[in-house]
Amino acid sequence: MIKAEIREKEWLEGVYERICTKMLSTAGRNRHTLPYTAKDGVFNDLSRKDPCWWTNGFWGGILWQLYHATKNEMYREMAEEVEDKLDQCLMDHRGMDHDSGFRWLPTSVVNYRLTGNEKSYNRARLAADNMAGRYNPAGRFIRAWNDWGEEKKTGWAIIDCMMNLPLLYWAHEQTGDPRYLRIATDHADTAMKYFIRPDGSAKHIVEFNPETGEYIRSYGGQGYAHGSSWTRGQAWALYGFTLSYIHTKNPEYLACAKRVANYFLANIPDTGLIPVDFRQPEDCALEDSTAAAIASCGLLEISGCLEGRERSLYRDAAVTLLYTLDTKRCDWDEGRDSIVQKCTAAFHDAEHEFPIIYGDYYFIEAIWKLTGHEIFIW
C-alpha cells in the first residue's frame, strides 16, 4: 500500500498531525465527560448514566497518549478528572467485573508511571485485587461478568479478558507477589486451551462448571453465531496473547498470538475493511473498524518480538490496516468529535457501524507506536 519508506514516513507524520489537530478541538469540547459513542459527530457522556461502563478508561487513555506526545497540560488535567470519575465504579461492587484492566490501566497505572501519583497507585492496586478476586481456582479462569437478574454467569469467561491481564502483570511487577502472576498465567493457559481453535479462530464466550472447572460449552456472544469468528474477539486474542508473551516471555503465548494473527490476516477481505464476523453471511456487509485498529496494535507488538521477514510481515500488515482506516474510515473534520467510523459493538445489536471510543484509542495508539510517541499502557 505504501511502498517507499519515505512515503510511509510522510504519511505517518501527516496522520500524527491530523490527530493532534483534531483532538485539540475535540478535547476542548468534551471536558468533564466520559465519551462512549457519538451521534451526528457529537460525543455522548456516560459520567452520570453509566460511570461503570467497561469502556470508560479509553478516553483517559487517549488523553494520556496526547499528553505524553504534546505535554499539553490540558490533557493531563482532563485525564486525571476521568480517573476521579472512575472512583464511583471502584466503590460499587455491582459495577466491578473483569474489565478492570480496560478502566485502570489507561488511567491510574499510566498516571502513576508518568507522575508517581500515590493515589493513582492505590486505585490501580484496588482494581487489580478486585480482578484477582474473580479467579476461579477450579477452572483456572477469571470470571467475566456478574449475574444479571436470573441469568447466572458464575462459570463464564470471555476472550476479551486477555487484554485485562496486564493489570495483574503490573501488580506482580510492583509487589513481587506471585499470586498476581499465577492468576494471570493460569487464565492465559486456560484461554489458550479452550478459546483458540486449531485454525487460529477464537471463541468469544466459554462456560465452565464453576464447582469442578469442567468445560461445558461455548457461545457465539457478540459474533454472528456459535462457531463463528467475531473479529474484535480475534483482535483481543491477537493482542492479548502477545502482551502475555511480553510480560512472561513464555514462547507458547507468542506462538498462539501468531496463529491468531495469521488467521486474521488470511481472512481480511480484498477491500481491507474488517467485517463484524469473518464468518458472517456473504451478503452481509456490516463492518467493525475497532477490530482493525486493535489488531494493528497487536500486529505491531508481535513484529517487535520477531526478526527478519516475519518482523516485516506483521508490521506491514498493521500499516496496511491503518492506512485503510485513515483513507476510508476516518473522519478528519475538526468540528466533529470522533475519528474512526463504522464500528460495531455486536453483530445482533439493533444498531451497527457507529463511532466507539476504543476505535479512536487503538487507532491513536497504533499511530503513536509507529511515530515513537507512545506511552506503553498494557
Structure commentary:
The protein is mainly alpha-helical and 378 residues long. The chain has helices spanning 5-29, 58-70, 73-85, 87-90, 100-115, 118-132, 165-175, 178-194, 231-248, 251-266, 289-304, 308-329, 357-371; strands at residues 38-39, 42-43, 135-136, 141-142, 156-158, 205-208, 215-219. The strands form 3 sheets. Strands 5-6-7 form a 3-stranded antiparallel beta sheet, with no helix packed on it. Strands 1-2 form a two-stranded antiparallel sheet. Helix 5 (100-115) packs parallel to helix 7.
Order of H and E elements: HEEHHHHHEEEHHEEHHHHH
Beta content: 5-15%
**What is the first-to-last residue Cα distance?**
29 Å
Number of helices: 13
Helix coverage percent: 40-55%
**What would you call the structural class?**
mainly alpha
Tell me how many strands there are: 7
Computed Rg: 19 Å
* Spatial sequence of strands, sheet with the most strands: 5-6-7
Cα shape:
globular
- Nearest-integer average pLDDT: 97
Q: How would you sum up this structure in a few lines?
A:
This protein has 378 residues and is mostly helical. The chain is built from 13 helices and 7 strands. The chain has a 3-stranded antiparallel sheet, with no helix packed on it.
